[in-house]
Amino acid sequence: MNAPVADDWREALHESLKASGIDLVAYVPDAGHQRLIELAEADPAVAAVALTSEEEGIGLAAGAWLGGRRAVVLMQSSGVGNCVNAIASLSRACSLPLLLLVTMRGEWGEGNPWQVPMGQAVAPVLEALGVVVLRADAAADVLPVVEAAARMSFAGGPPVAVLIGQRVIGAKVFAR
Amino acid sequence: MSTALPERRAVVAALLAARGDLLVVSGLGGTTWDVAAAGDDPANAYLWGAMGLAVPTGLGLALAQPARRVLVVTGDGEMLMGLGSLATVARARPANLAIVVIDNERYGETGGQRTHTAAATDLAAVARGAGLAASETLRDLAAVTALRARIHGSDGPLFAVVKVAPGNGPMVLPPRDGALLQHRFRAALGVDQGD
Ligand SMILES: Cc1ncc(C[n+]2csc(CCOP(=O)(O)OP(=O)(O)O)c2C)c(N)n1
Ligand SMILES: [Mg+2]
Question: How much distance in Å is there from the Cα of B108 to the middle of ligand 1?
């Protein structure tokens, strides 16, 4: 189980995404995004799209932008590895905006060593792709950082990823 | 089969005949050249890369433009790389989305290597299994003309495979600058207003 954390920043984040004109939420579930996914699924003003793989989210966001709609893609850090060619060959190749919210694993008290290699590769991989990487390492940072990221990317800027630190989410404990 | 399979350029031209306000996404390689050969249009979102992402791109567009019909035309190889997206479409159930796979049973663009559809895979059955009930395989132009009518007139999501003769035809190249393509597409839809 995840360590319990206050959910208020997720409620505020849901409202703030809508205030930024983002009403399409694509996701592959992660425990760290659970509440935000529930809020999106329950909100009739938001289209929540469950993906089978994170790279679909890059195509979905591209198509939405072509049609005049703003999307956000939620994933855990492993999912970044599934998006590499999509970000390079679609978002970057067409100078499309892109907003990724990535809940980090493999960086803070991680109990599953299989998460560590990709978790540690997330920032350098995204940077190699030309994605601007912003971090939120305290619950109070999440909202302003996501707002800044959305403004920057949808203004015609580069793809922006917000990495929500594992310390904010709470490290997953594998106990027996 | 006794009758010869249709030529892909004729199939795509029939799909896009009298297209009206249809929005089109084409998969990298062969189908992008086919769609360009049928006549360049700012409402064509040509992919020059991003293999496996034609269907997700079409889904995003369909969700953004629910009043417009959206057609994804892509190759069998491109579709095989993104099979999971069929389950995503089935779950999202966009009524205005149609997906047509131009199936030459080859990776035409890279030298004509046999794809999995030549060996074992029935893409229409895969789509049905993913949850797209309106899924079929077509083998002649008359059926394609009937499909064109359904794309404009019936609720989707629709999925069809069109088996076509081998041979990709000459390359017909649309603009290749991705930024230009996205801006002219958005301008044509009236959504490019200095966000
Ligand atoms: C991720 C990725 N892998 C491989 C390629 C090389 N590639 C380009 S087009 C293509 C074949 C496409 O086949 P299909 O979709 O059936 O189109 P056809 O040319 O047969 O119409 C391949 C493998 C690529 N562009 N991207
Ligand atoms: Mg092919």
Answer: 7
For B8-189, CATH number out of 3.40.50.2000, 3.20.20.70, 3.40.50.970, 3.30.420.40 equals 3.40.50.970
Residue B92: its H or E element:
helix B84-92
So what's the ipTM on this one?
0.96
List chain B domain ranges: 8-189
**Alpha-helix residue ranges (DSSP H) falling in chain A:** 8-19, 34-42, 54-66, 77-80, 84-86, 116-128, 139-154, 166-169
Among B83, B184, B195, pick the best mutation site for testing chain A contact (most A Cβ within 10 A).
Answer: B195
Tell me if chain B has a CB within 8 Å of the CB of A49.
yes
Ligand 1 mean position, distance from CA B175 (Å): 19
Q: Could you report the per-residue pLDDT of B29-69, keeping only the tens digit for each?
A: 999 999 999 999 999 999 999 999 999 999 999 999 999 99
Q: Which fold has domain A8-169?
A: Rossmann fold (3.40.50)
Q: Specify the pTM.
A: 0.96
